[in-house]
User: Which sequence fits this backbone?
């Protein structure tokens, strides 16, 4: 484990943001856990879990928490600005094109191409994060129930998350004793 | 009211309720942007939603696109800050509390308990990415319906 400087964090997140098509989260994990080794896989999963229960894009929440863990407010600001700087510029250019022409050429093709790739990346990252946890029947049970409720039954997100999370946390608590 | 102020207020409020990112709040964005303020038509909002998916970075940058349509570059910047700052501040505060209770047994239980739920959610997101562009294609035929069905639970 190394502790990055504020500048290193800015640039690492900047490069990650530039790669983050279809959502930056898989790339952020790869950068933090596999490339830079600033966090262990376990630490990342813990931070990610908490981030999902906070409002806002989960990848921004992860970025703030990681940035602040290393360098407080300056660290959080550097990481967030790094992550969104380039995407924001790209989006603004696209916005200007759209405002001028009423469409952005190539968007349909990009989306078609991205769909499968992003799906694969997100699913692969989720499985990687599950990793050794898949050996725990309790983990697999809650994972399956959550997936079934959201992806298959399309139950409302917030009640599902809050309800299942409470049961799961209680189960973890009593199991511990 | 000044459109910049309206953008700031609307998206600041949105930032603090957007648990799960931009997708669950799409109906609310639609209500603010199309129904309430008539900044965009449903078709335009759907176009911008597609653009935000094709660009790198968090899909929440959809609000920058909306802001740009409403008030140009200042609109885009105001909307982005309004949607990021409150949730980031909250994350920062929670992170500090979380660090303080590093060794508390309840913290470990919360982390262990939340992991399967959030990873299950992530798998679901992966599946919906696969399904969303394939089913019906882009741009969607009925924008309002598409927005609703994308979130699937409006």
Assistant:
């Amino acid at each position: 484990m190394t502790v990055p400087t504020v500048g290193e964090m800015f640039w690492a997140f900047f490069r990650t943001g530039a790669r983050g098509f279809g959502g930056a989260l898989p790339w952020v994990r790869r950068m933090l856990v596999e490339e830079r080794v600033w966090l262990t896989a376990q630490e990342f999963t813990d931070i990610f879990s908490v981030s999902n229960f906070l409002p806002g894009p989960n990848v921004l929440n992860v970025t703030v928490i990681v940035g602040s863990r290393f360098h407080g407010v300056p660290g959080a600001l550097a990481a967030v600005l790094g992550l969104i700087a380039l995407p924001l510029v790209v989006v603004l250019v696209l916005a200007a094109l759209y405002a001028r022409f009423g469409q952005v050429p190539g968007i349909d093709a990009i989306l078609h191409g991205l769909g499968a790739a992003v799906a694969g990346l997100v699913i692969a990252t989720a499985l990687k994060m599950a990793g050794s946890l898949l050996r725990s029947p309790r983990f697999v049970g809650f994972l399956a129930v959550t997936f079934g409720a959201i992806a298959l039954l399309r139950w409302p997100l917030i009640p599902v998350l809050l309800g299942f999370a409470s049961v799961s946390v209680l189960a973890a608590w009593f199991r511990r004793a | 009211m000044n459109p910049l102020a309206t953008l700031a207020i609307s998206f600041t409020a949105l930032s603090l309720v957007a648990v799960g990112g931009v997708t669950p709040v799409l109906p609310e964005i639609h209500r603010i942007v199309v129904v309430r303020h008539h900044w965009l038509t449903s078709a335009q909002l759907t176009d911008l939603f597609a653009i935000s998916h094709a660009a790198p970075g968090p899909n929440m940058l959809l609000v920058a696109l909306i802001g740009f349509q409403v008030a140009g570059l200042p609109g885009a910047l105001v909307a982005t800050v309004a949607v990021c700052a409150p949730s980031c501040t909250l994350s920062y505060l929670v992170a500090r509390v979380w660090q303080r209770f590093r060794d508390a047994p309840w913290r470990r239980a919360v982390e262990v308990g939340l992991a399967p739920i959030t990873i299950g959610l992530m798998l679901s997101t992966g599946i919906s990415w696969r399904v969303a562009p394939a089913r019906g294609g882009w741009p969607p035929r009925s924008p309002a319906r598409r927005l609703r069905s994308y979130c699937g639970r409006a």
Notes: The mean pLDDT of chain A is 88. Residues 136-177 of chain A form one domain. The first helix of chain A runs from residue 6 to 19.
